[in-house]
Design brief:
single chain, about 260 residues, mainly beta, 10-stranded parallel β-sheet, globular
């Protein structure tokens, strides 16, 4: 399907909230990000969406707690590269107070993030796979919130999951593996909750697989990890630094280091 045809369908369907259903092998190549207006409700099911642009979807709208974007069973291949990494976004980039739902999707990004949330946005990720991203797979900044369930993250060039500011990420039954620096990283004043997760084969011997750090004078990190398996990593399995409010129960780790 040509880009122009797809965008015309988006402009027609999104204001009415009518789904766009694509055949699994339908390929759409974007030259710029799909963006929505304030009251749009875009639903895309199926297809392959790829593109050499800052982000494939750039959602920057106040959707009044309604879901602005839903992607179901979509393959997203973000191919943008640039010598200035600030020019490269993510497969899905969500800002402002937008609400997004990602279900059964696969993500790759040659030089960017898989999923990026900032400001006061909210993202739900279920039954997805994020593989081979040029930066971190999932990042969450400012006051954003991300909930991830039954999802696999691997081969991130930096971290599998990273959150900072006053953001919140909840991971349920998530597997993170084969990332170059860290599996999961929370710092500043972030809140991280992990339940029934696995983090293994993280590659950097100088970095912990799971890292919670509140090193600033006003920082407080909230870190919950319950029934998780953290093992087979090149560096420490878990590192906790500074003013961290922790709740750790029934976890299996090959090694745990605590620093203050």
């Amino acid at each position: 399907m040509e880009e122009g045809e797809f965008l015309a369908i988006v402009r027609e369907n999104a204001p009415k909230g009518e789904p766009i259903c694509l055949e699994p092998d339908t390929v759409i190549t974007l030259t710029s990000a799909v963006k929505l207006h304030r009251h749009d409700k875009l639903i895309v099911r199926g297809g392959i969406i790829q593109g050499f642009c800052h982000s494939l979807f750039q959602i920057d709208c106040n959707s009044n707690k309604q879901i602005a974007l839903t992607l179901e069973n979509v393959r997203l291949n973000h191919t943008m590269v640039h010598e200035d990494r600030r020019q490269v976004g993510a497969a899905v980039f969500v800002m402002s107070k937008a609400v997004v739902s990602l279900i059964g999707c696969t993500f790759t990004s040659t030089a960017g993030f898989g999923i990026w949330a900032k400001h006061d946005s909210s993202i739900t990720v279920k039954d997805c796979s994020i593989d081979k991203v040029g930066r971190s797979a999932i990042v969450c900044f400012n006051n954003a919130k991300i909930s991830v369930e039954d999802t696999t993250i691997k081969h991130a060039s930096v971290h599998g999951v990273c959150l900072r500011g006053k953001s919140t990420i909840t991971l349920n039954r998530v597997t993170v593996s084969d990332c170059k620096v860290r599996g999961v990283y929370v710092y500043q004043q972030g809140t991280l909750e992990m339940y029934d997760c696995q983090v293994f084969r993280i590659m950097d011997p100088e970095s912990p697989a799971v890292h919670a750090e509140a090193s600033g004078p006003d920082d407080v990190v909230h870190f919950t990890m319950i029934s998780c398996n953290i093992a087979e990593n090149a560096g420490a399995d878990v590192l906790i630094v500074g003013n961290v409010v922790e709740n750790l129960e029934e976890n299996t780790t090959g090694e745990r280091r605590l620093s203050s």
